[in-house]
Amino acid sequence: MARKPEKDLLTRLADAGEEALHRLSEAPGMDRATAFAKSTRKQLDELTKRVQGISELEARIAKLEKQVAALSKDSPPKRSPARKAPPTAAP
What is the secondary structure of 30-86 as a DSSP string? Predict the structure, then answer.
C-alpha cells in the first residue's frame, strides 16, 4: 500500500490559505467588495498626488516668506508725513 508523503506545515498552511481565498471569492457580494476596494485604491492614489502638490506649495510659500522678510529688512521704514500743529488763536 502506497502511503502519501506527509506535507510540511508551511505547505499545509499555503493550501489552506488558497482554499480559503477561493471560497471567499465565490461568496455572495464579494464582487461589490472587490469593486469598492479598487475604487478606494484609485481615490487614495489621487489623494496622495494632491498631498504631494500641497507639500510643494508649502515649500514655495516658505521660500517666498523668506524673500519678503529679507526685502523688509533691506528697505528703510517708511515714515508718515509730519503733521502740522493746528493754528493757535490770536489773543
Answer: HHHHHHHHHHHHHHHHHHHHHHHHHHHHHHHHHHHHHHHHHHHHHSPPP-PPPPPPP
